[in-house]
Amino acid sequence: MGVDVVVAAGDGKAARKVFKKNKALLDVAGKPIIRHITEVLLKCDEIDNIVVVGPRDAFQEVIGDLDVMIVQQKRSLAENCWEGFLNTIDEYRRTGTLTPEIIEAHRNKHVLFVSGDIPLVSVKEIREFVSQCDMEKYDYVAGATSEDILKLFGPRKGRPGIKMATFHLRGGNMRQNNLHMARPFVLLDSIDLVLKAYEYRYQRDPFYIIRSLAEIIRLGRGNIFQTLWIYLTLQISAGLTAMGFGRAARIICFPVTQARIEKLISRILNARFKIARTSVGGAALDVDNEKDYIILSVMYRDWMNQINEG
Question: How many structural domains compose the chain?
């Protein structure tokens, strides 16, 4: 039996549009991004039901012929993820009402959350990520990809590429890759913090850095000073790298390890958290702006060949 999937592809509050359009509806290599994603998921034996959350009428036109459930988007990413998850539960779909009995019966239910703007996601990467999600041991597993792998999609002499921001750790830099396996009912008390962290994920923007700090202080648990120290350390090391001071950045981030991050987030969420690194990289290339979309469209076939050939 496979895992259910929620594809969060809404264009409401906090969602960035590209060319004034829902990113999931942008055309890449002759088909909308949302169709690329759903077709990949349908090829995965590890996947059971697929719930796509977004503008229902528009999605019905482009993926209505596929074996997926399309759910009308709500106002925000938080509501879209939550509504998508609830629609993976038969009892909720029949009644439209969430009861304490449903929560108790499905408290340990986990689902895979996938972003709606990652046309380079592949069957290989989905399988690799799912294989690392031991949900007997963890409540939330976040996908990540190392900077060394992402350099394969970066700009090179004579060909365009996308340079992506990464988090700096002692064991090497990495970037979240838009794949998340989680038990939403277990995370119920911490869901606001999880979703706010994702909403403010564009950490190159000073506004999002400030908002992230505010939410850490407002919603964080445990040792708030240690949380702020690690967060600011990550921001400073990223800034030093951007200015060309790579050696100084490595010194600054030396105390921050993946194990330390996992332990800290587990304490903040009051849940068992793990980072699972994939070796493919396609899911980390989300479409965030017009420039990246144009480059990805031009390089799509080359990059997909690169992914498929390993």
Answer: 1
Using CA atoms of 69, 29, 40, 122 in order, give the dihedral in degrees to the nearest 10: -140
Q: What is the pTM of this model?
A: 0.89
What range defines the domain where residue 302 resides? Answer: 3-308
Q: How many CB atoms lie within 10 A of CB 118?
A: 26
State pLDDT tens for residues 160-206. 999 888 888 988 899 999 999 999 999 887 766 666 555 555 545 54
CA 211 to the chain's CA centroid = 19
How many Cβ atoms are within 10 Å of 214's Cβ, its own excluded? Answer: 12
The DSSP result for 82-105, as a single string, is: HHHHHTTSHHHHHH----HHHHHH
Q: What's at 105, amino acid-wise?
A: A
**CA–CA separation, 255 vs 251, rounded Å?**
8
CATH number at residue 71: 3.90.550.10
Beta strands of 139-287 (E only): which ranges?
140-146, 174-182, 273-278
Cα–Cα distance measured from residue 140 to residue 274, given in angstroms and rounded to the nearest whole number: 7
